Structure formats: structure tokens, C-alpha cells
Amino acid sequence: MPIEVAIIEDENELRNNIAQHINGAAGIRCSHTYADAESALLEIPNVPVDVVLMDIHLPGIDGIQCIERLKPHCPKVQFMICTSFEDSELVFKALKAGATGYMAKTTEPAKLLDAIIDLYNGGSPMSSHIARKVVSSFNNIEGNNELQKLSPREKEILTLLAKGLRYKEIASQIFLSTETIRTHVRNIYDKLQVNSRTEALNKIFPK
Question: pTM of the entire structure?
């Protein structure tokens, strides 16, 4: 079965171009596109969708609010922000709302397709310059009381999780086994009293 993708984007030409690229690729299909969040909120909970590409700046309800409303009804759907807005505050708001990927609209079509597949397979794709913004912001919150509960190694791993890396990628980057990373992540969640990366970000970056 192909990966079913939905697009929520108010720019007609861009929305149609992305859908065309997706439908021209093997193993991926885009059967649902929306120009606003309101239409998507009505339909997406009732159609087969695996991945949603979401713009932030939409008429009416914005993309982050849309994810917040859809996520409880579509817990298995993966949301990837695809936008021209790249400031750190919006990145974290999107991740905290339930997005698991964040790509710039300027991303090459081939890389966007790769990101969709990565997201579907459990990854958290993020444009490199956006990832740098995430890490930079993360490094500026050392005074956060919740962060002080973590060891230096756990802070390092949480930073990499915020950057969007998977356990295997983190293990390779800091020369530990994947199972050791899993143990560290469980300890991080226990100390922060959370159950997911999104909840951990909410603790470190409270609204």
C-alpha cells in the first residue's frame, strides 16, 4: 500500500506542484489537498492518511492550531510542517503541537519525498538550518528548572531529540549503542515525568 499523504497549503500553485511530485513517485500517493485548515479538520479524521504536510500561515485557523485539533483524533497520522516560517519559536510550537518533522518550502522535491518516507518510517526529518535554530535555542535555556534535573549526557541526548534525530542516529553521533540511547531516553522521560518527545519539549519550553 502506498504512503497516503495529505497537503494543507493555501497557495494553489505550490499545493498542486507538491501533489504532482508526490503522485509521480513510487510508493507515495496524495489524494487529499486542502486550501485551509477548516476543510482539513472536517475531512482528515475520516479518510486514510498517513502523513500530513502542513503550512503554518493559513487563512483562519493556522497550521499549528490545526495539528493541535487533529492530533487527538488522528494519533497515528504524522504531521510535517512545510513552511517559509523558520523562526525558533514557531518550530517549537509546531513540535509541541505534535508535528514530527519541519521542512522549509524551499526544500528540493526529491528531498521532500525522502523526508515523507523518513517520517512514515519513524524518523523526524528537519531541514539542516532549522535544526541548527532548534539546537541554538535549546542551548539558551540552561536556567530551566526542569533541565537541571538531567545529567550532561541526558541534556545532550535531549538536544539531539529536539533536533529530530532518531535513536540510531543519536547513537552513531555520540558513539553509544542504540539500546543505551533508549535507556537514557527512558531516564529522561522518568525525570521529567513525561511519556514522549513532545511532552518533554513542553516541559523544557513551556507555553
Answer: 0.71
